[in-house]
Task: inverse folding
């Protein structure tokens, strides 16, 4: 099972346009990253706040609902966040490459 | 009482009343002292009393430090000693000039009460405790209420000097007491002093008996009765002569202000914002019956926020938490959750555990699909016949787009756009490169799921086969990968249980896989079957029999045809077993037979009496009739009811037949393709083909009717892929797509709902092409096909 996870992670990193992949745990400590440490920490910190806010928004509207995925499309890239209780998976892709 | 006053005159015994009074004053508890043992007990415990007193009261200590006979002398102008002498010698121990000491010595009174518990009764009087703190200075027994003493006390209260005298006398007494104490100490320094801590009687400081009585209590009845009597009385009272209203005047008690000093009360601010979901979460968890939820909620939520405030890398400013950390529960939580009722104190999840968890895999899976969607979005949109959205930020691409638009417009000027194939993408990954695509099948329930079998056709290049289940949402990696021991030559998805995939292999094995599970092994395998195929299985099909044959089970059955000349029907009966529906016997050419006769039999050496079967197809409506194609080039029409004889034989092809397929729209018409470079269109009742199609001199490996138009079919031969539209032309294919050099195209599949064609080649790629500018007309064109057939037949006659 672990091998499959590794394979999938590797495949994701090698897809077209993917700039970086980050897995952080609940405290914001990176578990896996393909970017440098400062960028990783910055992304993790900022995206965590945003995810919390997004989740709060979703649940405020309907408490039975919950946030499953977050995508931010910007001029240069697209940031995709898969939040969870214990970790956060962040992928930055440049889709127009 | 006279006793205390009498005793006051004796210096030694001065201790006793004073101490007693002090006891009374300090504790604020009035004790009636009438016991005879009083003197004895006091004497015995004098030392301890004084000890306690000395320890507690600062004033007492100070006074003990002061000069023993410290007298204050008041001298008037004339130097006369007008020191007022107290009328009443107060109990020196009772002096408490500082009010606070009353409280302090209250505790001492408490300790002393230990000694007195056995001898004294405690009486409580709420009013006395409050009002007589001052009046207890030097009071004897106020509870007894000797007015003389009280008056004297009240006088003395206003007189400040009396206090001093009190202190002086106290100091006197104190010194004496000290002396007494010291004597004892010198003698008995090394003695073990036993201190007995005895639980005192309960001191009732305030007793306000309740006005209301519980219904269940024993007095309830009497109370109720009294109540009812009273209400009656009230009722009777109004007009009754017996009762007269009179006004009275009562004394109002004199009020007195009292100041109290206490330590500063620490206050802490706590605030929270209750979100909608916060309340919902607490409510849900409360409904699940968690203990102490309400208290925990507040503590936990606050604790969460504290931790989040102190989180190591977080500089979050949470609008919710304005909390001082002093008085709140400090939790060692490390989880940044929003559930407020969780106060986890567990260790943080191991990173390895996170990576291996199910949720992480799921998230990765979703993430990969989303990334691919970003990459393939235009292609997938074209597949689904949705308008493709241009990325507004991709400026550099705008230029080539403009160019192509100009090209298209120039084409438009020439005439109607020619039908063409546009290559959208191809399913391939590193696992499949180099393998030959032998068969493809769509899932019957999920039209986005494609199963592709990889295996060599020829005998010499055999290697282990592969079955990949691809999803449209991920063209770069298959969802399921099954490796088989020999090359895969046939595939089909079941219609009744949509996750069953039947696989036929080059060594004759038939296996079924469950694509829903993640297991890599087949559900069942035919390798143990006695009657298994001994030669490559060239086609498998799940056929739904509506009519049961000879009482057997209805429903779906797996039918296979293999090169050992048998068409078998497989079923599960203690393992996979099969019965033969038909044995394909070799049929010799009738013409030769007639001419040559017996000589033919001798010269022709038969390897086997069976003709290898290569393909079959069941009639779309009548599941009893099927066609089978053999290596000899014969097409046999057979029935499930007869397994000895063919119903019909159609002979036209000169080479092995690779595919037979009934038309989905016209139930009489079928197509066959073979390695003799031709595709033949037949009608069921005619023994010669109605139409034949030949475009190149290459073996045609696969042919398939279009699911949308009755006049369209696609064919794939070694070098190229062709789409024929009989309504447009019966001589040439409408669309031709050549294969990449060095690659042979081996299989073809139409997509059911969209205008797309899938082509598999010998390099392991399954390319998806979209039919552009192609339409055979409105409707299914069944009429057109029949017209064509009719006109062709008419022209032949």
Result:
């Amino acid at each position: 099972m672990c091998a499959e996870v590794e394979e999938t992670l590797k495949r994701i990193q090698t897809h077209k346009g993917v700039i970086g992949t980050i897995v952080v745990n609940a405290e914001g400590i990176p578990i896996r990253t393909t970017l440098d440490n400062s960028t990783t920490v910055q992304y993790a910190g900022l995206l965590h706040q945003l995810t919390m806010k997004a989740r709060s928004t979703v649940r405020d509207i309907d408490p039975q609902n919950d946030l499953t995925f977050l995508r931010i499309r910007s001029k240069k890239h697209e940031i995709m966040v898969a939040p969870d209780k214990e970790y956060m998976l962040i992928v930055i892709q440049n889709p127009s490459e | 009482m006279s006793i205390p006053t009498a005793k006051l005159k004796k210096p030694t015994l001065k201790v006793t009343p004073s101490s007693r009074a002090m006891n009374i004053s300090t504790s604020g508890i009035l004790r009636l002292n009438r016991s005879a043992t009083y003197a004895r007990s006091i004497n015995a415990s004098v030392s301890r009393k004084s000890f306690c007193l000395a320890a507690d009261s600062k004033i007492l200590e100070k006074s003990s430090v002061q000069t023993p006979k410290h007298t204050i002398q008041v001298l008037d102008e004339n130097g006369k000693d007008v020191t007022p002498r107290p009328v009443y010698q107060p109990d020196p121990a009772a002096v408490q000039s500082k009010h606070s000491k009353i409280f302090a010595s209250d505790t001492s009174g408490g300790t002393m009460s230990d000694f007195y518990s056995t001898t004294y009764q405690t009486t409580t009087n709420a009013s006395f405790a409050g009002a007589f703190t001052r009046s207890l200075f030097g009071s004897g027994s106020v509870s007894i209420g000797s007015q003389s003493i009280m008056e004297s006390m009240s006088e003395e209260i206003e007189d400040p000097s009396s206090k001093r005298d009190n202190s002086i006398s106290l100091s006197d007494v104190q010194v004496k007491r000290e002396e007494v104490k010291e004597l004892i100490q010198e003698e008995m320094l090394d003695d073990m002093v036993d201190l007995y801590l005895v639980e005192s009687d309960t001191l009732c400081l305030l007793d306000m008996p309740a006005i209301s009585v519980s219904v269940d209590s024993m007095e309830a009845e009497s109370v109720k009765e009294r109540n009812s009597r009273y209400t009656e009385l009230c009722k009777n009272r109004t007009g009754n002569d017996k009762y007269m209203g009179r006004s009275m005047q009562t004394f109002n008690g004199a009020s007195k202000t009292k100041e109290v000093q206490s330590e500063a009360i620490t206050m802490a601010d706590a605030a929270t914002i209750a979100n909608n979901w916060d309340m919902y979460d607490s409510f849900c968890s409360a409904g699940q019956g968690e203990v102490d939820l309400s208290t925990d909620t507040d503590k936990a939520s606050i604790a969460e926020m504290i931790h989040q405030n102190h989180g190591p890398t977080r500089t979050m400013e949470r609008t919710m938490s304005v909390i001082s950390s002093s008085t709140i529960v400090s939790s060692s939580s490390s989880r940044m959750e929003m559930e407020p009722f969780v106060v986890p104190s567990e260790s943080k999840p191991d990173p390895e555990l996170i990576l291996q968890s199910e949720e992480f895999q799921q998230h990765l899976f979703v993430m990969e699909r989303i990334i691919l969607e970003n990459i393939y979005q235009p292609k997938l949109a074209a597949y689904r016949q949705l308008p493709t959205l241009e990325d507004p930020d991709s400026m550099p691409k705008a230029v080539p787009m403009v160019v192509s638009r100009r090209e298209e417009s120039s084409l438009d000027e020439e005439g109607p756009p020619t039908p063409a194939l546009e290559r959208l993408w191809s399913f391939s990954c590193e696992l499949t490169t180099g393998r030959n695509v032998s068969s493809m099948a769509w899932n019957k329930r999920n039209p986005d799921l494609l199963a592709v079998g990889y295996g060599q056709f020829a005998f010499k290049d055999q290697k282990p086969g592969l079955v990949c289940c691809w999803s449209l949402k991920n063209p770069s990696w298959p969802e399921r990968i099954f490796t088989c021991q020999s090359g895969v030559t046939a595939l089909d998805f079941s219609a009744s249980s949509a996750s069953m995939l039947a696989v036929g292999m080059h060594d004759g094995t038939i296996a079924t896989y469950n694509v829903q599970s993640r297991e890599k092994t087949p559900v069942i395998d035919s390798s143990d079957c006695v009657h298994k195929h001994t030669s490559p299985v060239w086609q498998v099909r799940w056929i739904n029999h509506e009519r049961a044959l000879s009482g057997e089970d209805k429903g779906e059955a797996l039918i296979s045809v293999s090169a050992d000349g048998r068409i078998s029907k497989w079923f599960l009966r203690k393992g996979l077993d099969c019965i033969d529906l038909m044995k394909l016997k070799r049929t010799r050419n009738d013409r030769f037979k007639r001419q040559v006769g017996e000589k033919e039999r001798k010269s022709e050496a038969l390897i086997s009496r069976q003709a290898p079967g290569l393909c079959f197809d069941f009639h779309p409506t009548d599941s009893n009739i099927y066609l089978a194609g053999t290596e000899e080039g014969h097409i046999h029409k057979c029935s499930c009811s007869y397994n000895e004889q063919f119903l019909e034989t159609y002979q036209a092809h000169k080479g092995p037949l690779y595919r037979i397929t009934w038309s989905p729209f016209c139930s009489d018409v079928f197509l066959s393709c073979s390695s003799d470079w031709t595709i033949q269109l037949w009608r069921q009742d005619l023994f010669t083909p109605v139409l034949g199609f030949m475009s190149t001199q290459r073996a045609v490996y696969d042919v398939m009717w279009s699911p949308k138009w009755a006049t369209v079919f696609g064919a794939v031969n070694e070098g190229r892929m062709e789409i024929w539209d009989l309504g447009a032309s019966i001589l040439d294919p409408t669309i031709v797509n050549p294969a990449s050099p060095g690659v042979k195209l081996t299989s073809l599949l139409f997509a059911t709902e969209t205008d797309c064609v899938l082509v598999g080649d010998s390099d392991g790629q399954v390319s998806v092409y979209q039919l552009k500018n192609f339409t055979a007309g409105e409707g299914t064109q069944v009429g057109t096909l029949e017209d064509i057939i009719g006109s062709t037949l008419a022209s032949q006659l």
Summary: Chain A has a mean pLDDT of 89. The longest helix of chain A spans residues 37-61. Chain A touches chain B through 49 residues (CB under 8 Å).
